[in-house]
Design a protein that fits this description.
binds flavin-adenine dinucleotide; 422 residues; alpha/beta; globular; 3-stranded antiparallel beta sheet
Length: 422
Amino acid sequence: MNLEPVSIMRSIKTIRDVVGWGLCVGCGACQYFCGKDSIALENIETIGIRPIFKKAQDVNYSECLKFCPGYSIGATRNLQHNEHVIFHPLIGPALEIWQGCASDKDIRYNASSGGAVSALAAYCLEKENMEFVLHVGMDKYTPWYNKTVQSKSRTDLLARAGSRYAPSSPCEALSLIEASARPCVFIGKPCDVAAVSSLRKYRSKLDANLGLVLTFFCAGPPCTAGTLSLLKELNIEKKATNEIRYRGKGWPGHFQVSFNNGTEHKKLTYEESWGKLTDHHRSFRCNLCPDGLGELADISCGDAWHLYDKQNNDFGQSLVLARSERGSEILHRAMENGYLQLEPSKLADVIKAQPMTGRRAAIFGRLLAMKTLLMPVPQFIGFPLSKIWLKNPIKLKIKTYLGTLRRLLTRGLWHQKPLNPA
Ligand SMILES: Cc1cc2nc3c(=O)[nH]c(=O)nc-3n(C[C@H](O)[C@H](O)[C@H](O)COP(=O)(O)OP(=O)(O)OC[C@H]3O[C@@H](n4cnc5c(N)ncnc54)[C@H](O)[C@@H]3O)c2cc1C
């Protein structure tokens, strides 16, 4: 008889477990770290981009836990000794908050919000002598997919401006930044940036070549099935598409499709498409994200929804948060050089503009529900999650906790899924 003590709380020992428990965010960092011989990335239509493990046993699979954002995210300590830091428990630390837009009319028009992300990237290429921008654009052969790309010019950046509400894995190509002769810009979702901020501690060349790390506010990317269901609703055959855009060409822009023959163009409003894209098409792990506003980047940008007026035909306004000293310095130089037109904003505006700031207050309750079902939970270190949870009204706490339990049980998320190969 085996008398060894049995732990009933399931634990995570390697990134295989992260994937099996549905906690992977699909950033691609494990492929960069372990190499393509060990890990392939596959876009699973109803889930997202996930690693496929090519070797049954590999020590790197456990080593990856030290940077895997699905497993662990640590709040930034960049600014802990800076006396000018502004802090809100729902937003995290920042040095400055601004609102406004790119000065370049084309960038602003093509971008998602005010084009601040693309304008900052263009400034780094043109004035800070950075080598390239590693980010995400449409895959021209399969427009319903994203592709990790290098942009080397303003033209490249313009072609890739605009949010793409579909899976992306920009960390897969970090070796390009590592091998670069000069510093580069990295643009990714907050979870991609979390991987980058951990990885740079272990890879000195990567650290040295990360000239600027940019992110945007993110409520979570829908899986490919979201895009395909919109195409179906518009009666569009995916193979007939030449370009799929989710935002941009105005604010907030439309979900737009153009065709191989160039003749047709179908549109849904942002409100129509965003609701349908996110309905049942986002992973549960995104609901646990403690960093939707990107506090681990040098600069994070989002929609300045508090300035949005449907009647006004405004071409877009961004919120811009300097999250590090480097971010603040580059932001000021970009403004001085005429790349951005910004005016001061404040914490209250960020909360007003972004209802999703409230999501951080629900995470502790969701983790509690996972623990009740003896599921392993991600490690979120240094975020004030329990403090803000305690401030929620009791009714909301019960609703969040029971709602999460129900979701975990009905969606079968409470047990580990087998992986291939075993
Ligand atoms: C999945 C997702 C969820 C979002 N959720 C929110 C939200 O809740 N609230 C909110 O205010 N805004 C949200 N946004 C929009 C985002 O905040 C805006 O892109 C941001 O305001 C930056 O606008 P911009 O005009 O400065 O960026 P732009 O100048 O348009 O540049 C956008 C940049 O983002 C990159 N990018 C686009 N799609 C992806 C992707 N899937 N993965 C990685 N990089 C990508 C592009 O490569 C480009 O460099 C979301 C965007 C995405 C992709």
